[in-house]
TrEMBL record:
Record key words, sorted: Transferase
Protein name per the record: 4'-phosphopantetheinyl transferase Npt
Protein origin, superkingdom: Bacteria
Domain (4'-phosphopantetheinyl transferase N-terminal) ranges: 27-94
Pfam families tied to this protein: 4PPT_N (PF17837), ACPS (PF01648)
């Protein structure tokens, strides 16, 4: 599913079922040695997907460490993102010569828990939710999912926190598809986007979203 919302040049892999024989890379085991089983499976599954995506890019399937705020440490010259939720693990990877960053997120297609929306959204976003026919889609969870993908695209370039209130997201629905469960989104960053490498400051991101098979997927590939 993920490849449906990623542009050419971004490799991806996903697991819908967890292979019982799957084990941690020996060089990553220490990172999850004390983790509960669910955390281990999410960690191992997502990194397994990352190595599959790396191979698609012609890169060796190396260990993937963990950096500041849990950021995955990908090989030099590669950018990427990992995600997981119940029943799903995935990775998207690209060469940094083509894309500056990649951010993906997966969420179950269900409503946000009571009380969460106000803490993860702006007034303008809540107004959009209130005035948009849902047509069976949980748009509040879609908004949260897009905010998560935005953060994952932002943090590796800036090494700075980005709060939910620091990004305003708007959505469009694909009109050419048979259903209304896909489209694009635009993130306007509301804080200075100075990057750690001195490159062009970040002002916005554009991404795609998909709702299918009980999942919400969002993806940003920032060139």
């Amino acid at each position: 599913m993920l490849e449906r919302i990623l542009p050419g040049g971004v490799a991806s892999a996903e697991l819908l079922a967890y292979p019982e024989e799957l084990t941690a890379h020996p060089a990553e085991e220490h990172l999850i040695a004390k983790s509960v089983e669910k955390r281990r499976r999410d960690f191992i599954g997502a990194r397994h997907c990352a190595r599959l995506a790396l191979e698609q890019l012609g890169e060796p399937p190396v260990a993937i460490g963990k950096g500041e705020r849990g950021m995955p440490l990908f090989p030099r010259g590669v950018v990427g993102s990992l995600t997981h939720c119940d029943g799903y693990r995935a990775a998207a990877m690209a060469h940094s010569l083509r894309f500056r960053s990649v951010g993906i997120d997966a969420e179950p297609h269900g409503p946000l828990p009571d009380g969460v929306l106000d803490s993860v959204s702006l007034p303008a976003e809540r107004a959009w939710l209130a005035g948009t026919p849902a047509d069976g889609l949980h748009l509040d969870r879609l908004l949260f999912c897009a905010k998560e993908a935005t953060y994952k695209a932002w943090f590796p370039l800036t090494l700075r926190w980005l709060g939910f209130e620091d990004a305003h997201i708007t959505f469009r629905t694909d009109s050419r598809t048979a259903d209304s469960g896909s489209g694009t989104f635009h993130t306007k960053l509301l804080v200075p986007g100075t990057t750690k490498d001195g490159g062009a400051p970040l002002m916005e991101f554009d991404g795609r979203w998909l709702i299918a098979d009980g999942l919400i997927l969002t993806a940003i590939a920032h060139g």
